[in-house]
Amino acid sequence: MIIEIGKDNLCVGINTFGAELEYIKINNVNILWSRSSLWLEQSPLLFPNIGALKDEYYIYNEKKYQGLVHGFAKRSEFKVEQKTSSEVLLSLGYTSETLAIFPFKFNLLVKYQIINNEVVVSFKVKNLDDKTMYFGLGIHPGFSYQGLLKILGKLELNINDQEYEQIDFDKSFIINTHKENLKTMTFKEMSNKLVNPRTLCYKDLQVIDLKGNSCRIEIKHKMPYTAFWQKVPEGDPQFLCIEAWCGLPDLIDTDHVMENKTTLQPLSPGSIFETNYCIKYINE
Predict the structure, then answer these.
(1) Tens digit of pLDDT for each residue in 36-65?
(2) What integer pLDDT is reported at residue 233 of this predicted model?
(3) Which of 92, 131, 128, 130 is nearest to 108 (CA)?
(4) Can you tell me the distance from the alpha carbon of 235 to that of 87, in angstroms, rounded to the nearest whole number?
């Protein structure tokens, strides 16, 4: 089911399956990627893991569990808890099916709000279990080049000029980190950087401006990592994913033991984890 919130100048559609954004319309122009054979998703939620698991499994309490790429939240129907014209609250709880692949009792709450000219996506993870829970959480929105061009007039990533820690991947898995100095660049320049590897991930990069001729779109979040990803067909790129991650994919030399995974977020029994991802349209 698709739920729409907002007004004419800014509205979003949310699919209760996966709690995934279907569209973000600014002045009736959709800036979100629309599904196609190039990429069948638009803005999947990543939970309880980011990316792939090495050898497609992990170990908890000496038991092996099979995992899914980016977890199971994006493959799940969420319950609508509350809805108004400007916000909707969705929830996903544990079931016998989730316990078979993720042995923790949890509740995941995702709230979408329109506040003035801003889309605010808030996350709350509750550990309902009597043991520490280990998880990853993220959001994976793809922004349409065509839609952004209509709104902004040009495609430029305005990034605070400083040194960031970059996560190095061998295909899907972490092999190293190094320091990288980022600066303002065009989407085309970022696209060229994403040829190999296809994912670039930076620690503590939490504000990115998509700068236009007389307006901009500010992306801001409270997660430790920002990742860029795309799929390029023959010809020019069509979208750019600007992701936020709490957690990371597996290390390439992981021992598979969940408690040893420094890439996961630990959450003690009865505790709550909260974070958010915001997209703001600013006229200048």
Answers:
(1) 888 999 999 999 999 999 999 999 999 999
(2) 67
(3) 92
(4) 38
Please write the tens of the pLDDT for every residue from 217-226. Answer: 999 999 999 9
The pLDDT of residue 79: 98
Contact 58, 116 (CB under 8 A): no
For 153, the 3-state DSSP assignment is: coil
Sign of CA dihedral 56, 78, 223, 27: positive
User: Side by side, which strands form the sheet with 29-30?
Assistant: 2-7, 10-15, 20-26, 29-30
In sequence order, which residues have a C-beta less than 8 Å from that of residue 112 and are 6 or more positions away? 5, 12, 14, 21, 87, 88, 90, 119, 120, 121
- On the question of pLDDT at 194 being above 80, the answer is yes
DSSP at 47? B
Mode of pairing for the β-strands spanning 156-159 and 207-211: antiparallel
Each residue's pLDDT tens digit, 111-142: 999 999 999 999 999 999 999 999 999 999 99
Task: Tell me, yes or no, if the pTM score tops 0.85.
Answer: yes
Could you tell me where the beta strands, DSSP code E, fall in 16-117?
A: 20-26, 29-30, 45-46, 57-60, 63-66, 79-83, 87-93, 106-115
Q: How far apart are CA 85 and CA 110, in angstroms?
A: 16
Q: 42 exposed, middle or buried (CB, 10 Å; 0-12, 13-18, 19+)?
A: buried
